[in-house]
Amino acid sequence: xxxxxxxNSYEILAPHYDAAYAALNRSAVDLPFYLDQAKQSGGxxxxxxxxxxxxxxxxxxxxxxxxxxxxxxxxxxxxxASLEREAPDVRKRVAIHEGDMRSFRLQxxxxxxxxxxxxxxxxxxxxxxxxxxxxxxxxxxxxxxLALDVFYPKFELLTQGIGEEKLELEWADESVPGRIVRRxxxxxxxxxxxxxxxxxxxxxxxxxxxxVREEMESVRLSYYTYPHLxxxxxxAGLEPVEEYGSFSKAPLDNSATEMxxxxxxxxxxxxxxxxNHRRVPGN
Length: 283
What we know:
This protein is an alpha/beta fold and 283 residues long. It contains 8 helices and 12 strands. The protein has 2 domains: 188 residues, Vaccinia Virus protein VP39 (Rossmann fold, 3-Layer(aba) Sandwich); 68 residues, Single Sheet (S-adenosyl-L-methionine-dependent methyltransferases), CATH 2.20.130.
């Protein structure tokens, strides 16, 4: 049996990513929301942390120009291969860039930037979180919007099952007839102070009952409370114009499963502009 173990490289995750989330039917959940945002904006769109292009390609197929940025060569390699299989008119609408969401600058602004499916949760410190949001804000046109989502934390579940493997998904390996891939997840630790949990994805490939390959990749994700996010938005010069608890636009309340925001740059009131500042009594 072949064993592969990588740490935070996405070399293991990238080749399995599209098959896994097709099996999960994830695009039925979030794609309509982001596609609608893209259509409303008229394009072009900037997708930050575009990965293998699950969202990006659908926006391009809808006739909207889109730039994608990601810091993982492995994920972008899969995206470029997928793009080569698209029609010429779709390929013309897509530009791909390698860059860090905390620091890249494309010298271009957009009516819409998106950060779909939780890449923002890969920012583990307040300086990194603010830097990523400021990067997005720097690429917005005057009335442009940023749309992003993070999961709604279920605190009662965070520390359950530490060290246990759970089977999440199964799909056929189309490259080899008769092969099945099963994805397991093991929660390894939770840091309640820094609000970060770590886990390991385990991919096991079977031919019949025989395990022929095992691959592992670790993941480290931040989780957020609502006030935490609102403070980060404030620090980055952003303000919510829409917020939802699901991709069907349910209210963001105690029954929420997601925290979804559409943000814009803060509008500075005339009384607070430079040269017209009013001093607060007692300060």
